[in-house]
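Checklist before submission:
- one chain only
- standard amino acids only
- sequence pasted in full

Submission:
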Amino acid sequence: MLFVWIGVMALSIVTEIFTRRLIALWFLPAGLCSLVLYICHIDPLYQILACLGFAAVGILLSRIFFKKRASAGTVSDAVMGKLCTVTERVDDAACGQVMIDEQYWAARGVYEDDIFEKGETATVVAVEGVKLILKKS
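Returned file contents:
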């Protein structure tokens, strides 16, 4: 069982690196707990139950924690009213691009005749889908 628990921990790390969903992460401490039980010569059935139980509790607690954080606000709430920097010209012919909090967003002006040149600063007044709606600052 030694290699099983080492494998569970290694697989947990590798899976978490590629998915970043905070689900596989909980199998790392669960595998460690089961490894300690193995070292203490506890029955393999209890090792498996401890691993699954520890992982399940971790997943449930993280879901509860992140659900509370997610209900605190949306992405549109976070960018509304903020200043952004135009990184690609915004005009009526095409959507441009802006950077806000080190993230790039597609953007357009409130009015069709709004033009924002690269390097200008604008204020976010709305979010429509994945586009920010801007007005002159």
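Reviewer check: The two ends are 64 Å apart (CA to CA).
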